[in-house]
Amino acid sequence: MNEQPRTSAEQGTPRDPNTDTPAANTDHAPRSDRDTSGSDTAPVRGARPDGPPLRTPEVDPAEAAVFGRPAGVSGSFDRHAPPGPAPRVEQAPPTPESLAKAFGRPPGVSESLQRSPADSAPAGDTPEEEPVFWEGDEQDPWRDPTTGAVLGSPALTEPHGTERSRAEHAPLLSAREVLFGRRVRPRSLAALGIVALLIGAAGGFLGRLTAEEGNPLTDPDVTLAAVEPNNDRPAGSVAGVASRVVPAVVSVEVRVGSQGGTGSGVVIDGNGYVVTNNHVVSMAADTPDAEVSTVFSDGSRVPARIVGRDPGTDLAVLKVEVANPTVAQLGSSEDLRVGDRVMAIGSPLGLESTVTSGIISSVHRPVRLAGEDTDTNAVIDAIQTDAAVNPGNSGGALVDENGAVVGINTAIRTLGAGGEGGSIGLGFAIPIDEVRRIAQQLIRTGEVRHPELGVDVKSVTDGTADGAQVQNVREGSAAQRAGISEGDVIIEVGDREVGGADELEVAVNDHEVGERIPVTVVRRGRELVLDVTLH
Q: Which of 178, 201, 243, 388 has the most neighbouring CB atoms within 10 Å?
C-alpha cells in the first residue's frame, strides 16, 4: 500500500517500533507537568490533528531524573542552575579520597569549573546573558575547538591606573668619598678595617694550611745536609797530578795564510824548549810568513820558533821566550806495564788544559804514521792507552800516577772515514825514552840521524812463524856487508822478535848508529845469526 507523506512534525518525531507510532519525545517536561488524570496516556505535541491521538509509554522516573532537562531549560547546559546535586543513578564507585582532594572543589565552594571570560569582569559590571556556544550563526572562538591559536594579551592583567615600580639604583660610593668625603662615620671605617684585617688573617692562615697540606711530597722545612769538604787530595790522585802537570802543557797554534791547525806541546826544559809532534808544525816549517804560537794554561800567548823536527819519529822541538816556565818531569817508558794508570793532558778539539784518565792498554805496539798534508812517514814503538785522545791532543803529555811524563800523545785509531772520528779508546803515544833521545839531538844539532839496515822487506808468515822477508838489499848497506841476501826472512833483531816489516823498522830504531847487533834470519829453512853494524 502506498505510505502517506509525513508532515514536518512527523519527520522530526521518532517512532515506536512496536506500535508504528511516534515514540515519546525525550524532550519532555517533568512528570509534575504531565496530565495527572486517570488515563494511561496523554496527548503528545506534534500529533496530527486529523489522526488518532499519539500515546507514549510511561517514562521511568529514574531515567527522567538522569536524562531529563531541568525545568525551564531548553539548552544542553544551564550555567545558572541552582546548586545542589540532582538525583542520579550511581554508575561508578565513589571517587577515591586522594583524587577528590586533589581535583575537587575546596570545601564550601560551589562555583562551576566551566566559566566564560565574562565571569572575571570587574566588580560592579553585570555580564550580559551569554548564549549557548552552539546556537546562532556566529560561534565564540574561545569556545570553538577548531579555532587556531593566536598571540594575545597576558592572561593576568594589571589593574587599571597602576604601573610597575622599578627600583632606582642609588649612586655608588668611591673609595675617595668613603675615606675623605665623610660619607661614612670614622667609627664605621675603623670597624670595617678591623673586619678586613681579620678576614685577611684568616684567609692567609687557611692558605698556609692548604699549601702545606695540599702536596704531601713537599716539605718547606727540609734542609739538605752537606759534608765538610775534603781539600786534602793525595799526590797520586788525578786532581793532584793535574794541578802539577797542566801548567807545563801548552796549546800550539799554527797559521799559514788562511789555513791553520792546533795541537799540544810539553815544556821539557827551563830555557823554553817545547816538544810536540812533527805533523802539528810541518805546514809552517818551510813557509816564511807562517805563524806559530803557544798558549799556556794561564791564557798567556807566546810566539814560538821551530828548533828542529824529525819526520821519521814524528817529533819536533819549539823554542819560546818565557821567563821561568813550569817544566814537566820526564819519567821512563821502559818501566811501564799493562794496567798502569795514566792521564792524557792536552787541547783536544781546541779545548785547552783538558785532562782524561785511563790505563796502559799495551806497550811496544808498532804503529805506522802517515800524516795527511805533512811529510811525516814514521813507525813508532807506541804505548797504547784507553784514555780519551782526540784530534788536538797530538804533542800533549801522557802522564803516570806520579806526575811524570811517560809518552807524547801522537795518534788515535778511529772508525770514521778519513780519520775524522773521535776517540774509541785506542790512543797511541811515543815512549818518553825515544822522545828524550830525539829531542836532545834536535836541541843540540837541529837534526836527527837514524840507524839503517839497508833492506826493503815485506811481512810474511808460514802459518807457524811470522817475519820480514827481504825483497831488496841496497848496495853498500849494512845488510850487504853482513851477508843478508834477498829471500831471507828476518825474525829477530838484537833481543827483539820481528813479526813483520813495521816491527823490523822499530827494532832497528831502538839502536844507535854504528852499533853492532845480531840479526837472526831464516834461509832455506835454516836459522842463521849474522852480525850487523848499523850505518
A: 388
